[in-house]
Amino acid sequence: MAAEPSSDPSALEPQVSAAIVRCAAGEKAALRLIYDLEAARMVGVAIRILRRRDLAEEATHDAFMRVWRSARSYDPSRGSARAWLYAIVRNRALTILRDERRFDPEQQADTDLPQPDQALQRLPDSSALRQCLQQLEAGRRNAIVLAYVHGFSHGELAGRLGMPLGTIKSWIRRGLASLQECMG
User: Fold this and answer.
1) How far apart are CA 17 and CA 20, in angstroms?
2) Is 110-183 assigned to CATH 1.10.10.10?
C-alpha cells in the first residue's frame, strides 16, 4: 500500500526515520516507503539545483541507491531522517552539476577527444581484450576506452560527448559487464 503524502512534511519524520532503520536491516519495502513519501520532493530539490528534470531524476535515483547502501550510517542524534535524505540528494545534485559544467559541449570540439580506435589498434591482434572490445557496440566501447585508457570521468564524457550522464554510466556499466562475460 502506497503512503499518502502529508500536507505537513514534518509529520513524515517518524515514518521516514523508522523506514531508514528498516532499510539498514535490509528491508526493501522500507526503501519503497521512503520513495513513496519523499521522492517527488527530492526531485524538486534536485531540479532547483540542476535546472534539468532528467539530471534531477538521476540525482534522486543515485540518492536512493546511497540511502539503501548507507542506511546503517544514519545517526538520529546528528539530525532528522529527512534532513539526512535531503543532504544526500543535494550533494548528489551538486556533484552532477559540477561534472556537467566541467566541460561545456559548446566550448569543446569533438576533435579534442582522443580517438578510442587508436588505443584499440595498439593492442595486439591476438589480444583477448581487443577481440572482446571489438564485439561491443561502438558507443559503449568508446566510453570504456575514453574512461579507462584516457582517464575521463563519467561527467567529463557526458559533457564532451553531449550525452546524458546516466547514458554514459549505463554504457560503461553494461560494456564492462559484457567485457567480463567475454573475457571470463
Assistant:
1) 5
2) yes
Nearest to 168 by CA among 137, 147, 148, 183: 147
Q: Say what percent of the chain tops pLDDT 90.
A: 41
User: How far is Cα 170 from Cα 73, in angstroms, rounded to an integer?
Assistant: 27
CA-to-CA distance for 170 and 8, rounded, in angstroms? 37
- pTM value is 0.54
Mean pLDDT value across residues 123-146: 86
What is the topology classification, in CATH, of domain 12-102?
Rna Polymerase Sigma Factor; Chain: A (1.10.1740)
Q: Is the dihedral of CA 48, 52, 53, 57 positive or negative?
A: negative
- Burial (CB count within 10 angstroms: exposed 0-12, middle 13-18, buried 19+), residue 27: middle
127/87: higher pLDDT: 87
Answer yes or no: is pLDDT of 105 > 60.
Answer: no
Residue type, position 91, single letter? N
- What is the three-state SS of 122-184? CCCCCCHHHHHHHHCCHHHHHHHHHHHCCCCCHHHHHHHHCCCHHHHHHHHHHHHHHHHHHHC
At 2, which amino acid appears? A
